[in-house]
Structure prediction request, 439 residues.
Amino acid sequence: MVWQLPLNRVGHPDNDLSASQDGTTIRRSILPGGVRVITEQMPGQRSVTLGAWFNVGSRDEADGHFGSTHFLEHLLFKGTERRTAFDIAGAFDSVGGEANAVTGKENTCYYARVLDTDLPMAIDVIADMVTSATLDASELETERGVILEELAMNDDDPGDVVHEEFTAAVLRGHELGRPIGGTAQTITAVPRDAVWAHYTRHYHSAGLVITAAGSVDHDVLCLQVMDALKRGGWDVTGSQAPVSRRDPSPLSLATVEQDIVIARPTEQAHVIVGMQGISALDERRFDLSVLTAALGGGMSSRMFQEIREKRGLAYSTYCFGSNYTGLGTFGLYAGCAGAKVDQVQDLMVKELEKVADSGIDAEELDRTKGQLRGSLVLGVEDSGSRMNRLGRAELTTGELLSLEESLARINGVTSHGVQLLAQELSERTRVSVKVGQFS
Prediction:
């Protein structure tokens, strides 16, 4: 079963779509005002994970607003017209729950995990945060210092640096190439007015997606969301349609071949070599999953065996694909001694080229599929993973695959399909980034 997620139907909680899978029940409603609510009721659970999503990330920031999305994520926890920052934190601490937020390149999510009896509180607090944040000027300046410290911490981690520089190089010239958190320069420069403008432009009922998984009653949740948004002053009485998803068309972006070396006084060098990948909506994304797992997804993967087990050149080596709407990246990573970095890079590239030349045999294909199937099933056993799955499906692909359909898509991957994708990727312009001490 593939559940298509339309955007243009505005109705009431009792007119929504419904579907069931592996003992759970999924329901979706578009409420007045364009708010989307998607729930997955999981039998036997006593907790629920709630998420409030907006389809806005660092790629959506205008000049002069760089870093605003991440800045805003911090500031929504700093107080509203009804609550102080301590009130927000204390509301979740007092019931043993947890609340946090995450900013991505394409969306932002504010989430909480609580006992089912405390879900009304979680809805009220998160709705208060997204509708009624004050963005107090003094709190903003305090949080500016916190974010600068966060960026400094990330800059001290060579693993973070190599990934940021790789993405920036492969996607140079596109908004997706910018760092999610901004830079020290942009965070220092961004004024409160820019953050406020970003908030008022993107945070409204038609842009809001509520997802919940666990012990949740869909109809009750819809009513609670409506009441909470009304308390926040949002108009949720009209027939406004939800904000449209991004244009799924693949984007054409030229990549310049580069070999970037960043000197850092580290004990270990970090290297990524890669290229543009495929978009999040590409039909070959399951082929990509098999390719990344076969190359560097576990202890039996090609890179792990060749670089770590046979040669002892690295402790950590893996393959990854980052997929966004219209664009993606594909990379091979290793951490090793600076003197060995060129050798390790050559070995990683050779493993990709071997798949491009010869594919993978039946035994390797079956083993990799088994790894992916197990990871998928284990990954959806907690309510947080399911809440995330609902949100990303609603905002990005417009379809929600059942567990059975996802497993069928994995099983449908062929060695030939993996080989064709490896051939295409290996022929694309390559970028390598090395961070460490090389002399």
